Every structure is written in structure tokens, then in C-alpha cells.
């Protein structure tokens, strides 16, 4: 169940205010649904769409094959801690290590297929 649409790529967050915006939406839906929530990148035709959704729903979207009727598929899930670590680095004036963030705080289709 998709919860909300985010109008930006978490990898393009460049300020603490942007990070807080993403986190406020995630926390709101986390409290409302009492489960882990993050941002799922969906490839829809030729452009990505970013949705606030549950981790369980994101895994389902990434492991089920895309049907012909809906030309979209889950590509990558950014956990809340991805944005928290990014925000903390920005607050300290540090340049975030995006590779490390990716490795530790995201799920993608290839990881799920390999498991």
C-alpha cells in the first residue's frame, strides 16, 4: 500500500531542511501505521517516482515481476536511517559517503534476488 508521493530523489538531498522534510513525512506514516517506513523508488515508464511506503510493501514491489498492464517496478528502497545519517552529516558540514549510505541503508532488486 503506497502511502504518499515524495517529489524528489533522496540521493539529491543537499540541506538539513530537505532531510527534515523527508523525515517528517516518514515519521508521520510510521506512527500512523506502526511499522517501518521509507522511500521506494519506482521506475515508471521513463522516469522514477518516489513513494513513502512500508518496508514490507517495498520488498513486495521489488520481488514481484512487473505485469504488462502496469509498466512499473520497484527499484530501490531507502530506509529512514539513510536520511537520518545523511541529515547528521549535513548538520556537521561533512560530505556524505553515498556509497556507504547505499550499502548500509538501502535495499534494491539485485540484493533481494541474490538472497
Can you lay out the helices and strands and say which pair or pack?
Layout: E1 2-6, H1 16-33, E2 37-44, E3 47-54, H2 55-63, E4 72-79, H3 80-91, H4 98-105, E5 106-108, H5 109-114
Antiparallel strand pairs: 1-3, 2-3, 2-4, 4-5
Largest sheet: 5 strands, antiparallel
Outline = globular
Number of separate domains: 1
What is the percentage of strand-forming residues?
25-35%
- Count of alpha/pi helices: 5
Helix content: 40-55%
- Kindly report the spatial arrangement of strands forming the biggest sheet: 1-3-2-4-5
Write down the Rg: 14 Å
First and last CA, distance: 24 Å
Summarize the structure.
This protein is an alpha+beta fold.
Describe this structure as you would to a colleague.
This protein is of the alpha+beta class. The protein has one domain. It has 5 helices and 5 strands. The protein has a 5-stranded antiparallel beta sheet with strand order 1-3-2-4-5. The longest helix is centred in the first third of the chain and has 18 residues. The chain starts with a strand and ends with a helix.
Amino acid at each position: 500500500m503506497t502511502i504518499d508521493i515524495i517529489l524528489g530523489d533522496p540521493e539529491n538531498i543537499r540541506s538539513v531542511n530537505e532531510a527534515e522534510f523527508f523525515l517528517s513525512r516518514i515519521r508521520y506514516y510510521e506512527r500512523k501505521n506502526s511499522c517501518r517506513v521509507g522511500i521506494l523508488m519506482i521506475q515508471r515508464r521513463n522516469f522514477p517516482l518516489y513513494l513513502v511506503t512500508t518496508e514490507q510493501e517495498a520488498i513486495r514491489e521489488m520481488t514481484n515481476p512487473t505485469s504488462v498492464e502496469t509498466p512499473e517496478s520497484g527499484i530501490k528502497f531507502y530506509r529512514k536511517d539513510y536520511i537520518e545519517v545523511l541529515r547528521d552529516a549535513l548538520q556537521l558540514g561533512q560530505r556524505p559517503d553515498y556509497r556507504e549510505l547505499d550499502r548500509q541503508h538501502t535495499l534494491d532488486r539485485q540484493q533481494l534476488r541474490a538472497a
